[in-house]
Write a structure and sequence with these properties.
By secondary structure, this protein is an alpha/beta fold. It is built from 11 helices and 16 strands.
């Protein structure tokens, strides 16, 4: 694979990100040097994917300190600004909060706080790379030789800064000679599967088939899929999981046809303060995303649109959570709590 870095941290300067809104047509790297630029990139989905948002959130805190006064008040305000940008993906808020804590623990001197924040961002990025590899190995071990899998949205290097979560499993299974094919939903309305996942699979040389979201149930019922694997944006303490809208429907159909449905995500995606899916905030996006793509419009103006960015899959539909520490099996409250103790 020709590796393309989804994010690069440049201490004392900022970070560079691959603008995912332009893929697959153009590979453009943009520089982010202010907190406002970081937040715009997050809102516009130039960067996306819960683990990658954690990296960008940490770097965003360092950038805020570099261009600001690094006071308690300013840094706390920067953390809140980042957290509010996309509320569902817990890692944006939680990792930026850990960065804030690292800065406050470094003392009152602005220089010490800036140094601590850049160091935290770099260490977290390196951790993400290691943990991506670990959970991908655990996930690949779950698949039998000759397996074909279905995935939803984008969970590769573009979404994590490492080799990916669910798509990292696909990658290592392919490299081990176990995978026959990866099916990818197009992921309406912003087409992350069609644009990003298929782009990554092609670079990896993995046999891939794209399908409309509405064809997923038919494909699963055909017997050609042996497992459904996705990522996650937030995992509640009881195992209920928020992920890209459409995930819940895939889990229901997989359960109906007795096909395992796995979530692949680092333990940083678990929110122990969230007791169940009912407590997960769901982001709703501009309804105009549903009626067209980019400048192309196919729905008449003036109509209403229902456009949640995420839905919640109940824990009892999930066969296992693949993390960097291993696979968590039901019952989830106990298994998740034990995994967090190891963290």
């Amino acid at each position: 694979m020709t590796e393309v870095a989804s994010v690069t941290i440049v201490p004392r300067v900022g970070l560079t990100v691959l603008d995912q809104t332009l893929l697959p047509g153009e590979e453009r790297v943009v520089e982010l040097g202010t907190l406002e630029e970081v937040c715009e990139a997050i809102r516009a989905l130039r960067v996306r994917g819960a683990p990658l948002l954690g990296i960008v959130g940490a770097a965003g805190m360092a950038i805020a300190a570099e261009v600001g006064d690094a006071s308690d008040r300013s840094l706390t305000a920067a953390w809140q600004t980042l957290a509010d940008t996309r509320p569902t993906a817990v890692e944006l808020s939680s990792i930026a909060r850990l960065a804030l804590d690292a800065a406050l623990e470094a003392g009152a001197e602005p220089a010490a706080r800036r140094k601590a924040l850049w160091a935290f961002a770099q260490v977290h990025h390196a951790r993400r790379i290691r943990e991506d590899r670990a959970m991908s190995e655990f996930g690949a071990a779950l698949l039998s030789p000759g397996a074909s899998v279905l995935t939803h949205c984008n969970t590769g290097a573009l979404a994590t800064g490492g080799i990916g979560s669910a798509l990292g499993v696909v990658r290592l299974a392919w490299e081990a000679g176990k995978l026959e094919r990866c099916y990818a939903t197009e992921t309406r309305p912003l087409l992350q599967g069609a644009r990003l996942t298929m782009w990554e699979l092609r670079k990896l040389g993995i046999p891939a088939t794209l399908l409309p979201d509405t064809a997923a149930a038919s494909l699963i019922s055909s017997g050609r899929v042996h497992a459904v694997i996705t990522g996650a944006d937030r995992i509640a303490a009881n195992g209920d999981t928020a992920n890209k809208v459409g995930t819940y429907g895939l889990a229901v159909v997989a359960e109906r046809h007795r096909i395992p449905f796995y979530i692949v995500a680092p333990t940083t995606t678990i929110d122990p303060e969230c007791p169940s899916g009912a407590s997960i905030p769901i982001e709703f996006r501009d309804g105009r995303e549903v009626g067209g793509f980019g400048q192309l419009r196919w729905s008449p103006d003036g109509g209403e649109a229902y456009n949640p960015a995420f839905d919640v899959t109940p824990g009892d539909l999930i066969a296992g959570f693949v993390t960097e520490r291993g696979v968590i099996r039901p019952p989830y409250p106990a298994g998740i709590a034990a995994s967090l103790e190891k963290r």
